[in-house]
From TrEMBL:
It comes from Burkholderia ambifaria MEX-5. Keywords: DNA-binding, Transcription, Transcription regulation. The keyword Protease does not apply. This is Transcriptional regulator, LysR family. GO terms for cellular component: protein-DNA complex. Belongs to the LysR transcriptional regulatory family.
Amino acid sequence: MHARIVTACAQAGFALRVVQQPRQMQTTAGLVAGGIGVALMPRLFVPMQPQGITFCELTGAGSPLAYELAIAYRTPSPLVDALRDTARHAGWHVRAGGYDVTAT
């Protein structure tokens, strides 16, 4: 999947710059909550994320396996917009609005 994402970014006119690749999704969520970039995360993490993270659902064909991903981000930014545009360019459906995980 990494190669597909890198290719989609290149086709959209920019290079993906990966600065962290944590092994644990909880670590990834913590980095996003801290304002350090955006992430592609499995949908199953939506209900258990820390407050302050917004999820934008991505769906679509892309491999022989069915999968769903969400873009996790703290605040809207040009980076988030570029990632959404790249996903659309790759043929994914991007649901606007997404999920807003806040404290209850």
